[in-house]
Amino acid sequence: MIRMTAKISYDEVEVGTELPAQTFPVSRATLVRYAGASGDFNPIHWNERFAKEVGLPDVIAHGMFTMAAAIRVVTDWVGDPGAVAEYGVRFTKPVVVPDDDKGAVIEVSAKVAVKLDDEARTVRVDLVATAAGQKVLGLSRAVVRLA
Amino acid sequence: MALDQSFVGRSYPPTAPYEVGREKIREFAEAVGDLNPAYTDPDAARALGHPDVIAPPTFAFSITFKAAGLVVQDPELGLDYSRVVHGDQRFVHSRPVRAGDRLTVVSHIDSIKSLAGNDVLSVRGEVHDENGEHVVTAYTMLVARAQEGV
Questions:
Q1: A11-49 confidence digits (pLDDT tens)
Q2: Domain A13-145 class, CATH top level
Q3: How far away is chain A from the Cα of B62, in angstroms, using its nearest Cα?
Q4: What phi, psi does B38 have (nearest 5°)?
Q5: Chain B residues touching residue A72 (CB < 8 angstroms)
Q6: Could B92 and A85 be called an inter-chain contact, meaning their C-beta atoms sit closer than 8 Å?
Q7: Could you tell me if B21 and B138 are in contact, meaning their C-beta atoms sit under 8 angstroms apart?
Q8: What number is the ipTM of this complex?
Q9: How far is B148 from chain A (nearest CA, A)?
């Protein structure tokens, strides 16, 4: 597999520059795997009976999974994930993951919102993440150091 | 029941060191479906200027949230964890977490608010390496939903 490792130059981006959007499919298997890797075994992320008992429509994805998936739009763009200096989100709606052959899909777009510092070559990237037409992350922002 | 405001400003003792392993980073990156070689290939990470493989930007949460358990489960604070949802999350990195790090976390309660009957608790986890250098700060906002009918 060939990977793009090209660095993004601060001088070449402008406010409004769009990053390549991506979609991330999420199945129950994805959530079980993320539970194991992250150590978050809250049953709302794998047990439909429990999720419904606490008032959720179905099993929901870990908010931290959605957060981790969304930043890939930035890290794939910039090449070096270590360039992400700051990253914050608000969890606005859960990503509901039905037990069928489709699961859920998280769609993420992002653009350069502010060129913060000409010396440090940092930009603020604003992300939009939706699932089933609903915004699942709010105030989703990353500060990224560019080349 | 509203949480006791006197807990604002409280800090908890540092956690025992968490040693970050290459294979744990790989497992986490694969669970997110992220194939960036900086997470799995030490040569690729070195080519980017890192001494070893680095962890994805949200990796530290597993460590800081476990540390925040001291706060969440503090019987004196009396948070009803069964009603807690994750409201906000933010990371501020001095550098990426990397394999070989031995990280300790000190958790602080930054604020306690009551909004429409919900308790809103902001916890800050300061993560330092074995040399005492700052690596990342994790800001976690937890919301304990109001009891129905109360």
A1: 999 999 999 999 999 999 999 999 999 999 999 999 999
A2: alpha beta
A3: 6
A4: -60, -20
A5: 32, 34, 36
A6: yes
A7: no
A8: 0.94
A9: 12
